[in-house]
Amino acid sequence: MTAYTATVVVRLKHGVLDPEAETTQRALERLGFELDDLRSADRFEIDLDAPDAGTAEEEAAEMAERLLANPTIHDYDVTVAERATPEA
Amino acid sequence: MTAYTATVVVRLKHGVLDPEAETTQRALERLGFELDDLRSADRFEIDLDAPDAGTAEEEAAEMAERLLANPTIHDYDVTVAERATPEA
Hey, which family's this protein in (chains A, B) (predicted)? Predict the structure, then answer.
């Protein structure tokens, strides 16, 4: 088994209203920043052990499907990287 | 001016308790997943125009300092990419 970190980014589907992001954008504009758009997303970094990167990615995608994302309103993507484990 | 998307990831500093992440990890374990750790972070994708990538990155870092992150408890990192703008 190899140690991996899977990063799952969960974002609202295009067209789903995001009042939190709108509020954040307006607050930045009130501070004097100029921006065209702001989108917010949740990011989960999951440390897990798996026989290979493909299996780690499948496992993380299943976590997204079953708990982290709501398929009605969310899209998600998964990236996987090997994780350095501290030696004893 | 060039169109950029700056991505700001805001995460809790090491050692700051994250009850939401702990709850999410336990819920995944109750579903039968095995994981070593789970960390959550906020991700902001900011569309802005700037003369060059360095300026876009500075601008986004200032947004993080002033609003998106709380320096007492958060670390953040900024990445910048050119953004394709729809042609008229």
Answer: Belongs to the PurS family.
Q: In the prediction, which pLDDT does A88 show?
A: 47
Q: Tell me the CA distances in angstroms from B63 to A7, B17, B50, B59, one per residue in order.
A: 24, 24, 14, 6
Binding-face residues of B in 52-81 toward A, CB within 8 A: 59, 62-63, 66-68
Interface predicted TM-score (ipTM) of this complex, two decimals: 0.88
Q: CB B43 to CB A42 under 8 A?
A: yes
| Positions of chain A with pLDDT lower than 70, given as ranges | 86-88
Going along chain B from its start, the domains and CATH numbers come out as 2-82 (3.30.1280.10)
Contact B59 A31 (CB under 8 A): no
Reference A48, options A86, A9, A11, A81; nearest CA is: A81
